[in-house]
Structures are given as C-alpha cells and as structure tokens.
Design goal:
It is a single chain. By secondary structure, the chain is of the alpha/beta class. Helix content is 46%, strand content 15%. It has 17 helices and 14 strands. Strands 1, 2, 3, 4, 5, 6, 7 and 14 form an 8-stranded mixed beta sheet that branches. It has a 6-stranded mixed beta sheet with strand order 8-9-10-11-12-13, with helices on one face. Helix 2 runs antiparallel to helix 3, helix 5 packs across helix 17 and helix 6 packs antiparallel against helix 8. The radius of gyration is 25 Å and the shape is globular.
C-alpha cells in the first residue's frame, strides 16, 4: 500500500476531524468535509487493488479513526496514570487506555468495512446508504452495551458551535451524525463528478445539504424565545482534590466549605443549591437518612432559606433481605446490600429523595463483561470505583420540590445520554441539574468536552442546565445552549443565576433516538443482503471495482 496515496490521506482526515472536535472553537464545520481525504484513499484502494482489498480498506480507515479517537480522548490515559505510579504503572495505564482508544475506532472502521462488503454485491448508492446506517448503528451500540462510551458520537462535534445545531431539538445528536456522514459522501461524489468533467448537480446537492440545516438552525437560534418563569439557583464548586477527598479533608470540613460557598452568594429567595457528585463522601444508609448527621447539617443550613432545596451528590447504601437487584452484594451480617453513586434532594421538610446513577463508567463503576475483564479490577479500584460494581436504577429520575418544580438529576457520565435525560424531561423535569467530579482527568480537554456536551442536552430538551462540578467547570446554560456563566478550572467558587423553567416537550423528547433505531433496522436488512450474496448465492463479483 502506498503511504502517499493511502495512509497520508487517512492521517489528513484524522487531523481534520481532531481539529474540528471540541474543545476547539469555530472549527466544527470541518466535520462536514473531514472524511473526504479518507474517501479518496478508499476509492483508490477499491479501483486499483488486486487482492486483499477488504483488509486494506480496514487498515486505512482504521488508521484514521484510531488516530482521531486517541488524539481527542488522550486524557483517558492521564486519569488512569494519575493513580498508577512508576514505570510499571505507566505501562498498565497505557494498555488499559488502548481499550477506549481502540474500541471506538474498531466500531467506526467496521462500518466502513461492512459498507465495502455491501458495495461488492450492490452499487455505490446502496453502499453509501449502508455506510450511514452501519456507522450510526455502531454509535448506538457504543451507547448501549457494557462497554458504553458514546463520547465520540459524531453529532457531539457541534457542541462548540451549538448555534448550528438548534435542530437537535428534533433529531438529537444522531441527526448530527447523519448530517456529517451524508455531507462527506456527497462532497466526495461531487468531487469525482467534477474531476470526470461532468455536471455540477452533486455540488449543488452538497451545498443544499450543508446550507439548509445551517440556515434553519441560525433562524431557530435567533427566533427562539424563552418564557419567563424564573427560579434562583446556586451552583457550588468546592474544588476539593478528588484524590484527597476521602482522607485528607474530613466530611465535616467539606460540608462547611459547601455551605459557606452557598451562603456567600445566595439570596433570600434562592430555591435550589446544586452541589457536586459525591459532595458527601460518607456512605449513608438511605433508610436511616433522617438521623444521618450530614443530612441534619444540610437541613440546618436550609433553615435560613424558606423555599430552599439542596441537590447534592452522595454515596449511599441500601440493605435488603432478598437479592432484589442484579448488582446486590452479600452482606456479611446477613441479607444483601447495594452501594450507589447517588444524588439526594433535601428540603425544609422531612421529605428526602434519592436518584441512583444509572449510566455507569465501564471499569470504574461497573465492570463490563465481568468474567472477561475481572483482572482489571485492581486498576479501576484505585480510581475510586467498586470492583464488584455500583448499583443503578432502571429508569430516569425526577426530583420534585414541595413547590412542584421538577428537576432532572444527572450524574457526571450521564451527560452523554440525550435520550436518557429526555426521559426525565418527559416525566416532568423543568430544568436539568448536572453534578459531576471532573478532576480525575487533570487540566485536559476532557473537562472542556464534558462541559460543552451539556449544551447539546439543553438544546435537545429546551431546558436550562445548572452544572456543579467538584473540580472542573461549573456553570449555567440556557435553553438555546448559550453558556451564561461558567467557573474556571481548579477554582473554589459559587455561581448564581435566575433560570427559566420550561414545560414544553420537544419532538426529540417525545420520540427519542428514532434515527438510531431506524439505522439498526436498516443495518439488519442490509446485513442480510451481504449474507445472502456471500453465503447463499454466488457473489456477483469477487472484487468489484
């Protein structure tokens, strides 16, 4: 294989896709053309290769996606290496990091390889439809299975230019993936049409495909008006080193930091105080929470705020007589128990509610395919996880205050699941409260990407986002996805804002990830075509040019 004709264009695509990816500002439109060099390389392989074409397709596309993924989520290595010291620890961190670097790239590459297989038995048009379907199906798989890591879903790429993605309120991020993939296919086809001296019809089609959604989005952005239903909310960033949180700083001191920061900017009419993930580090028995000293401390703090409500991260435990959940562990004292990375709502009343984080980080919070990856338990345990895994709940949660306001509690990693958050909104949430602890990654683009992705959740649901990060970026995002206020990295601070509640449901909230589900159906149908020609009927051509 020629480096100049194959690998160099593949690397150029990887560079363009990385350049367009968050947190780089203003460059997201490069996603609409970023795969063009890769397409030209793959076309060269198909038309000139005499043997092992499928292998060459896989290696060339694989180079693009491996380099792009690794460059965009390099911070995964930082987070693992921070707790695995020494040369041996660095080697272990590198090997573990290869899982997220390589797995997403493998799924993306597989979509291109399957599209090539389909092309052998059909034609360019059907293969192009197949590529879009296969790719989105792979993205949906990477959101749904035990190794879920939808960080690099193509539609996420417009988080830094949310003004161009206002129509996500209809489609969610998979609409963005569809837009990007078809744009790259059309510009490749237009390039070849012009190169062969034909008409410019495909160039016009490509321009329309790109410009119509942009024009529609800018119109929606400019014309969108929020209803004035204000609620005063405070988000707190205590900035406690996550590696010292469970030893060097006592739970009592952490609570005093949280309440002091809250008091420093709160108003008499403040209705919500949002504290970050695991803000209360002591395990709390949920069934005995009303006698818990940390809970009583929070209630005492709220006495000065008549309508005040605290939403805070907490590590909790529940005990059972029977094994009621898949994640339940045997209690040495009899029965079973589950431990949770949870959110808790506390009010000026005896009412208290819990939400259990449901989208758990593979390895750190939930061991994927435990029989296969059990040997990695010690590595992830150092990151604050549980080798046996945290418990979770099966449905999105909504916290209701005594005033009737509904809030969607979202814990850290769950920010990536638009459909999950949409489910909470469908069930009555009027704004979104994200609590997180982004300090694990250090001062890398990981924290910035995580914050930017929250803008897309605001657009999909047309809900305000109030984000509290222990260390990272806290802030407020309005219903158009605009960042109204944000904190700086590694700074102890608190922010307040009058946010507007919203009761209206977007098309996306009502219908969820319908594009991804249609892609799954189409993928199965096209896969049957490949199977039919490959194993049932003699192939039309062993190597179709």
């Amino acid at each position: 294989m020629s480096f100049k004709e194959n690998y160099l264009p593949a690397l150029l695509s990887a560079f363009l896709m990385w350049l367009a990816w968050p947190p780089h500002p203003y460059l997201a439109p490069l996603l609409l053309v970023g795969l063009l060099p890769l397409f030209t390389a793959l076309h060269q392989i198909i038309t000139t290769s005499g043997s092992k074409t499928g292998k060459k397709i896989f290696l060339t596309a694989g180079l693009t996606f491996l380099v792009w993924n690794t460059a965009s989520i390099y911070w995964v290595f930082n987070s693992i290496n921070a707790v695995n010291k020494g040369f041996t620890g660095t080697i272990v961190s590198f090997l573990v990091s290869l899982i997220p670097y390589g797995l997403g790239a493998f799924l993306m590459t597989s979509a291109f390889w399957l599209a090539y297989r389909l092309y052998r038995y059909t034609n360019w048009l059907i293969a192009s439809i197949g590529l879009v379907s296969f790719y989105i199906c792979m993205e949906f798989l990477h959101e749904s299975w035990d190794l879920a890591f939808p960080w690099m879903t193509l539609g996420n790429g417009f988080a830094t230019m949310h003004q161009l993605a206002q129509w996500y309120e209809f489609t969610g991020v998979y609409g963005g993936s569809l837009w990007i993939l078809l744009s790259n296919i059309l510009i490749f086809a237009a390039y070849h049409q012009i190169k062969n001296g034909r008409k410019y019809s495909l160039s016009a089609a490509w321009l329309a495909w790109v410009l119509v959604p942009i024009g529609l989005s800018l119109y929606m952005y400019k014309s969108y008006k929020e209803k004035s239903v204000p609620v005063n909310v405070v988000v707190v960033q205590p900035n406690i080193d996550p590696y010292e949180k469970y030893g060097s700083v006592s739970a009592g001191d952490q609570l005093r930091i949280l309440t002091h920061l809250s008091d420093s900017i709160a108003q008499v009419n403040t209705e919500y105080f949002i504290w970050p993930e695991t803000a209360i580090p002591n395990y709390a028995d949920e069934d005995r929470i009303r006698t818990n000293s940390d809970f009583l401390f929070i209630q005492d703090f709220l006495k000065k705020y008549k309508n005040g409500t605290v939403i805070t991260g907490i590590e909790s435990v529940k005990f059972y007589n029977d094994k009621k959940t898949l994640s339940a562990k045997v209690n040495p004292n009899g029965g079973f128990y589950d431990n949770y990375n949870a959110a808790m709502q506390v009010e000026n009343s005896a009412n208290v509610d819990f939400y259990h984080k449901s989208k758990l980080v593979p390895g750190v919070e939930k061991m994927p395919f435990p029989k296969v990856f059990a040997f990695l338990g010690p590595v992830f345990e150092k990151l604050g996880g549980s080798v046996s895994g945290w418990g979770w709940q099966e449905e999105p949660g909504v916290f209701y205050s005594y005033s009737g306001i509904g809030v969607a509690p979202v814990i850290c990693y769950e920010t990536l699941w638009g459909n999950w958050i949409g489910g909470a909104v469908k069930n009555g949430a009027q704004f979104i409260a994200i609590i997180t602890n982004d300090g694990w990654w250090g001062n890398t683009s990981g924290k910035d990407q995580h914050f930017q992705y929250a803008k897309l959740r605001a657009i999909e649901t047309r809900r305000y986002v109030a984000r509290s990060a222990n260390t990272g970026i806290s802030g407020f995002i309005n219903q158009r996805g605009d960042v109204l206020k944000q904190s700086t990295w590694w700074t102890r601070s608190a922010l307040k804002e009058d946010i507007n509640l919203n009761d209206n449901l977007t098309f996306y909230v009502k219908n969820g990830d319908f594009i991804a589900k249609l892609s799954v159906i189409l993928t199965f149908a096209l896969a049957l075509v490949i199977i039919y020609f490959r194993w049932i009927k003699n192939p039309i051509s062993a190597h179709k040019p």
